[in-house]
Amino acid sequence: MTTDSVPAAPAGVPVLDVDPFSNALLADPYPYHERLRAAGPVVWMPKYGIYVTGRHEPVRQVLNDHESYISSAGVGLANFSKEPPFRPKSLILEADPPNHTRARTILSRILSPRTVAQIRESFAQEADHLLDGVLEAARRGEIVDGVPRIAEAYPLKVFPDAVGLGSDGRENLLLYGDMIFNAFGPRNELLIRSAEKVQPVTAWIMAHCQRAMLRPGGFGDQIYQAADAGEISQDEAPMLVRSFLSAGVDTTVNGIGNALWCLATNPEAYARLHADPSLARQAFEESLRYESAVQTFFRTTSREVELTGIPMPAGSKVLTVLAAANRDERQWPDPDRFDIGRRPTGHMAFGSGIHGCVGQVVARLEGELILAGIAKRFARIELAGEPTRRLNNTLRALASLPLRLIPA
Ligand code: QZP
């Protein structure tokens, strides 16, 4: 975005002059989130000329009013009615009804609770297999890096298997995820650096959206079956497969990585989980609230609209800070406490409304199975060194998480 395209500060709106996509705020977002919530229900950020909300209630309002706050102008900083999208628009993410509805209907059928019942057994076996290997390493006294060894390994195995991809080249899924989640932010160093490798990665992704690359019966093939049935065109099918490959890996990798970090840094919570592994699902949910993998995304106003009494003109970009809403003291008692005993119903980590995460049943399944499998095998889980972060404009991501896992 060039400086002269940034709108002037509107009268009467609190101003917060920070760069939420700077390395400093991405590395340590919570003090900034507190300032954001304290400054007002909606604030203006002059650096990008955007409205920003970090309180639970206005975030919920924005995400539940898809007519006033549209997605077809992009859910990143870029306004697609003023600049071309960096890649062909997603048929589901960057769409409004009625187009969105057609795509959503297909994906929610493929990712239904019935599907989860069908895949649960194989996902559980894979979790057991992976964690048995980790247990052996722990018995040999090895320090395990929880990021590649668990958080990346598990989703990279089970999800592409379910989509129906072969096993070669899956590292492209992580590179692609890093790029597209950076691309929801400004064209800063992070985006420029992850986009340097974009050409071969995008070529790999698009090639693997073709029907011939997808095992019959898998999630990817089921999209082509929907095209066969006339629900979408044959040209749209690979684009919907692209949504699986865009949204299905980096999100759960970081959801699981962040959950491991929460448990390694909260020994009382881990002790409770170890004593009762049936808390795994709730523990994963609390980690989504406490360390939301997807920290933010945008909407664009379709008309002049008032949010908590603050008028915003048509065509405004509105940043919803999900991670800040998830620690809003107006919504949660003791929000900065990681408490696996709470049921964090209404957290915003999966979004809300018609665009709420369509894959959330699969994400929860993966999180539950990994946390339950760890809880059963290990008496304690401790940091064996300083974790390092992978900064990303949208994701809260770890680069490494050295763990000492003490077998039960
Ligand atoms: C990414 C797509 C948190 C969301 C922005 C994740 C996401 C969802 C969908 C797609 C990509 O359809 O490409």
Summarize the structure.
It is built from 16 helices and 12 strands. The protein has 408 residues and is of the alpha+beta class. The protein has a 5-stranded mixed β-sheet.
Task: Describe the structure in your own words.
This protein is an alpha+beta fold and 408 residues long. It has a single domain (3-407), classed as Cytochrome p450, CATH 1.10.630.10. Helices cover 46% and strands 12% of the residues. It is built from 16 helices and 12 strands. The strands form 4 sheets. It has a 5-stranded mixed sheet with strand order 1-2-8-5-3. Strands 4-12-9 form a 3-stranded antiparallel sheet. Strands 6-7 form a two-stranded antiparallel sheet. Helix 5 runs parallel beside helix 16 and helix 7 (171-182) runs antiparallel to helix 8. The longest helix has 27 residues, at 113-139. The protein is globular. The protein starts with 22 loop residues before the first helix and ends with a strand. The model has no long low-confidence stretch (mean pLDDT 97). Residues 75, 90, 92-93, 242-243, 246-247, 294, 297 line the site of 4-(2-methylpropyl)benzoic acid.
Structural key phrases:
12 strands, 5-stranded mixed sheet, 16 helices, Cytochrome p450, 12% strand, alpha+beta, binds 4-(2-methylpropyl)benzoic acid, 3-stranded antiparallel sheet, 408 residues, globular
Widest beta sheet: strand line-up: 1-2-8-5-3
Unreliable parts: none
Number of helices: 16
CA-based shape = globular
CATH domain class name: Mainly Alpha
The name of the CATH architecture is Orthogonal Bundle
Helix content: 40-55%
SS content category: alpha+beta
Q: Any idea of the CATH topology?
A: Cytochrome p450
Rg over alpha carbons? 21 Å
Number of domains: 1
Order of helices and strands: HHEEHEHHEHHHHHHHHHEEEEHHEEEE
- How far is it from the N-terminal to the C-terminal residue, by CA? 54 Å
Total count of strands: 12
**Can you summarize the main beta sheet?**
5 strands, mixed
Q: Please name the fourth-level CATH homologous superfamily.
A: Cytochrome P450
